Amino acid sequence: MAEQAMLKFVSRPQSYPAKREPELRAEDFREIAERYAPPTAEDQAGRCSQCGVPYCSVHCPLHNHIPDWLRLTAEGRLQEAYQLSNSTSTMPEICGRICPQDRLCEGNCVIEFSGHGAVTIGSVEKFITDTAWEKGWVEPVAVGPARGQSVGIVGAGPAGLAAAEWLRNLGYDVHVYDRYDRAGGLLTYGIPGFKLEKPVVMRRVERLKEGGIVFHEGFEVGRDAKLDELRQKHDAILIATGVYKPRAIKAPGVGSGGVVDALDYLTASNKVGFGDQVAAYDDGSLNAAGKNVVVVGGGDTAMDCVRTAIRQGAKSVKCLYRRDRANMPGSQREVANAEEEGVEFVWLSAPAAFDEREGQVVQVRATGMRLGAPDASGRRAPEADPGNEFVLDADLVVKALGFDAEDLPTLFDAPELGVTRWGTVRVDGKSMMTSLDGVFAAGDIVRGASLVVWAIRDGRDVTERMHAYLKAKAKAAKVAA
């Protein structure tokens, strides 16, 4: 049966779920494409070549069993496909929506190399788990036999949520502390609904709560309790805060009104989507309606900002990026979506100054750039192109240059917590433990700003290390008794 269902990549063309028309999708924050209907999902899964060395799995940080659940999908065995997909990931339908598949699994698909177009792995992954939710196949969190030990997790983003579920599977009492009023981290407040609708995140969080994981929302370590106090309360601690410090722009006028940080802008928009009252949105400070918007940056966060501005009814939206299209860090699919929706990209350009009138930004003075010699990473470094200056009207400027680690030793009142020269938390490579006994760290706060799928992988890995530590701690306590 498998031979009949698979290897259809020559006779069956690649087909993604249809996107809504740009003028329609720009009017709301719904996801831009519906998911597959079952026959189409099965047909597309059947394009998989079942190659001997599955590069899609190799290049997935979670090493998902992609060819196997594609085969099961092609055979109509959707519940088994879901179970296999769910075995390596705590949130496959979220990864299916927001992973940059063009740089990971699909970008390394063998039939992509042959010129037949990659299997649409992300869309099938989304279909499988959304179907599982609808059919009632998603089971409650499996709680292992109680161990009498508790873990405190600081940060309710993807790394913290993944670790919370796996630790609960092992029978630990799990408490999650997060500064926001809703769990999910950037999944909830950083990523717009047109890429990840919020009920998709909230149903995952609710499932964890129903599994006995205790969430302490609106809780700031350092303000509501010092890190040492949490260490006294729990048998182990996991720091999974992510990185939230926005990278700065050094240019005259950067402190003018209307020059805002990307995360502030996106958080306000997402809160409004939840129905919250947001004063800075209502007064126009974090609202692009009727404004000339300039977004500075070329990553996925910048793409989120430009596309949000379109949906808020901006008069114009321009994106300044200092390199060219081929060298931008963001997903090319996101760039294409943004262009379809009316965003103008100004490649090889950077802000030189922000001019203001009565304290409010009115224009961006920009300079053209050119690509010079390669830098330490191998990418050609941008440099100013003299004589190529220009001006853009701007009522709102969004800085989207990425994120660095916050000063956690100071924030947590834990000066003994070791950090790297980049401010990320320093951990032992094997144990994933920090300089403090029983305190572990995982996700972006260790590796720097990265992908959600890597955060989930780190959450899985740190669970294994914490489990070994906690078992040894329990054994030592039993011997001492």
From TrEMBL:
Keywords, in A-Z order: 4Fe-4S, Iron, Iron-sulfur, Metal-binding, Oxidoreductase
Pfam families in alphabetical order: Fer4_20, Pyr_redox_2
Residue ranges of domain Dihydroprymidine dehydrogenase in the record: 25-136
FAD/NAD(P)-binding domain segment(s): 151-459
InterPro entries, per the entry: DPD_II (IPR028261), FAD/NAD-bd_sf (IPR036188), FAD/NAD-binding_dom (IPR023753), GltD-like (IPR006006), Helical_ferredxn (IPR009051)
Keyword Chloroplast recorded: no
Coiled coil: none
Protein name as it appears in the record: Dihydropyrimidine dehydrogenase
Annotated source species: Sphingomonas hankookensis
